[in-house]
Amino acid sequence: MAFVTANWNPLGESFYRKIELYEMGWNLKDGLRECLVAAAPYGGPIALLKGHYRRSPSARPQLEIYSSSGLPLASFPWKSGVVKQLGWTVSDDLLCVQEDGTVLVYDLWGGFKRHFSMGNEVSQSQVLETKIFHSPYGTGVAILTGALRFTLATNIDDIKLRRLPEVPGLQEAPSCWAVLTQDRQSKVLVANGSQLFILDNTACTPVTPPGLSPQASSIVHMCVSFSYKYLALLTDSGHVWMGTSNLKEKLSEVDTKIKTPPKQMAWCRRPKSQQPSAVVMWDGLLIVVGECKETIQYHLDDDSVLVPELDGVRIISGTHHELLQEVPGACEEIFKIASMAPGALLLEAHKEYEKESQKADEYLREIKEQSLLSEAVRQCVEAAGHEHEPETQKTLLRAASFGKCFLSNFPPEQFVSMCRDLRVLNAVRDYTVGIPLTHTQFKQMTVQVLIDRLVYRKLYPLAIEVCRYLKTPEYQGVSRVLKHWACYKVQQKEESDEVIAKAVSVKLADAAGISYSEIATKAYESGRTELAIKLLEFEPRSGEQVPLLLKMKKSPLALSKAIESGDTDLVYTVVMYLKNELNRGDFFMMLRNQPVALSLYKQFCKHQEQDTLKDLFNQDDDHEELGNFYVKASYKDQRLEARVALLQSAVDEYYKAKNDFSAKTTEDEMRLLRFQRKLEEEKDEQLVGFSLQDTMTTLLSVGLHKHAEQLYKDFRVPDKRFWWLKLKALAEKEDWEELEKFGKTKKSPIGYLPFVEVCIKHHNKYEAKKYVSKVTPEQKVKAHLAVGDMEGAAEAAIERRNESEISTVLSRCSATTDHLLMERLNRAKATAVKK
């Protein structure tokens, strides 16, 4: 604690500090000399390509990947083309840009993933320089070709190459250039001598930085801030100009007094800082420039690389890994010499309290008198987040906890959250993990991305502990990590299928929301089909099992699983897949062993594939269904001969099925069709296709009574049905004379009340009255009422002494016109009730 400010250096109104993150674990004989180096932001991995200038097959370059602490992750000889640039994607994949414009993508462990080309023009004119950048769309690649033209891809996951306009007057490679991201568009800023140009999709626009030193004749280096909001330019006169990236505002200009071109330059401004600052590196020297004329100089003992970060710059050398940053405001307030800030007083109060000194009370009283105790606690908590040493963190958090004791309503969330965050950060900063995140970077990155990074590094136990400690929802945390672990586990060749399947099921038994089908897919892709099948047994959702089983050519098992699920859509999916994959015989044989699938397929064929349905019935010797099939087919054919032939086939099948009823009925249909065709030819009346009843109705309506009666006799139509048909047909024609003759032919099997009702329906009361006398006594009242004969209805009701009928007649009588009749009916009703 006494030496917290020992590595602080003042610059203007701020302080800068260089913190050692790690003593590197790698063993590099020549350090970083003659190496292509790329380090991922947010404490990501480091890639080295040693001897990248070598082109002899006997002495190939070596590509090595390390954690930020220098622990080896991967190493392999480079066997492809000449590499011009290395870089990392936002998801920690390594990009290797070759001289011919081919970009190779490797994972963190050196596994080749894919490659893509930056276009024919780049391939033909070769790559001069490359920059890999991060945009709102993802990771991008910008290339300067040998033809001095720029080609840009803003997202390597969705390659859309853009060839930018030509830079006027550019005869050789520009002195420097950088990629800017403005308004969700990526542009290139190019320096050609003292001239600056911005290249976008359509134009090359000359720009002038406001207030640039007139001594400058050329811009030799430039860098863009991590957020792309600010820009730093270094001129050949040794001046560093800093301003906004849109080149509309100048922030400062500082003379470094060094005119040789630097090796590297990077922004060092932390978020919310009031002072712009940049770091410029030469061989053996590092300079920090800000708003004032003074600079901070650090001497470097070894070749180093600058890695821009959100809140500082990481410096990687052959032996050490350091972080250079502006001292955060809360830390400066507390630790600055002679500081009277609330946080500083609270820290002193806590120190005195631990010594059991009464000065603690004096410090506390001083803070309370200014009503700044809440602010003091907040400062201590915030400062703890910005410190890397666990002892310093603990001291600050203890001071904050001490101050909280004297506050009655201080919200605990900030303190609790910071304790949790620091515990996680200290765990991932550990040398064996090697992710040196600051608290600011952690908050920008989010917990989910950190868990993804740990999973990508196969640090599954640590990822699970982080999820549990931060109480991440299970489906986003533990379950997701376990799924990744299982996908990795099934690719291990050393253990047997049974051992791995058991291990996965035990580990994942209590985890929620895990899809075993994804794990099984990974096993299948690794060539372990039997393991995939074992894993699918644990998958509760058949909809997830079946697609993979089909992919693995396990069709019978897929069909069984689909049927077990009870999901008809899933069964249809499998059946249609099998239909396309298998030959017809094997397909039908498989369906015969699965009655449910066969039944569903038959339903499908009824609507979509009639011929297939016929083949199925033939194969099963299902004569009953074949007969039904021929009958249905006959109705679809308009030609009489074809229809009769189909019906004859149906008759044959019904007899084979010993279904005499269906056979006889079908034969009757054939006789009817022939009869209809004959009449059509003789009488020119459309009849073919009509039912027996419709045929008789049509014949009666056109006066062909003899032909109708012939059908009546030939097809043994019931008497009642025929009488009804003829009665309605004659009434429709209003052929009352023929109706009267028909009624006298013999006693009506349907009675005579229908005659009365049909006549009334067709508004002929006169004809209706002719049949009233023939109506049976039980229907007399109804008949008289139908023709409007109230007297007759009353007589019939009184004669039958039926109370219900008397009441019916009474309800139809009018009190004004049928007064006497109503009295008579009432007397009769009273008599009927007494009896």
Q: What Rg do the Cα atoms give?
A: 48 Å
| Secondary structural class | alpha+beta
Low-confidence stretches: none
Euclidean distance between termini CA atoms: 122 Å
Quaternary organisation of the protein chains: single chain
Shape type: elongated
Kindly report the spatial arrangement of strands forming the biggest sheet: 1-2-29-28-27
Helix content: 40-55%
Largest sheet: 5 strands, antiparallel
Mean of all residue-level pLDDT scores: 82
Number of strands: 29
Tell me what portion of residues adopts beta-strand conformation: 15-25%
Number of helices: 33
Attribute tags:
835 residues; alpha+beta; 5-stranded antiparallel sheet; 4-stranded antiparallel sheet; 33 helices; 29 strands; elongated
Q: Can you offer a commentary on this structure?
A:
The protein is of the alpha+beta class and 835 residues long. It is 46% helix and 20% strand. The protein contains 33 helices and 29 strands. It has a 5-stranded antiparallel sheet with strand order 1-2-29-28-27, with no helix packed on it. The chain has a 4-stranded antiparallel sheet with strand order 3-4-5-6, with no helix packed on it. A hairpin with a 5-residue loop joins strand 5 (62-66) and strand 6. Helix 5 packs antiparallel against helix 6 (390-404), helix 11 packs antiparallel against helix 12 (497-508) and helix 30 packs antiparallel against helix 31. The longest helix has 24 residues, at 660-683. The radius of gyration is 48 Å and the shape is elongated. The N and C termini lie far apart (122 Å). InterPro entries: VPS16, Vps16_C, Vps16_C_sf, Vps16_N, WD40_repeat_dom_sf. GO terms for molecular function: actin binding. It comes from Cyprinus carpio (Common carp). Residues 514-829 form the Vps16 C-terminal domain. Keywords: Endosome, Lysosome, Membrane, Protein transport, Transport.
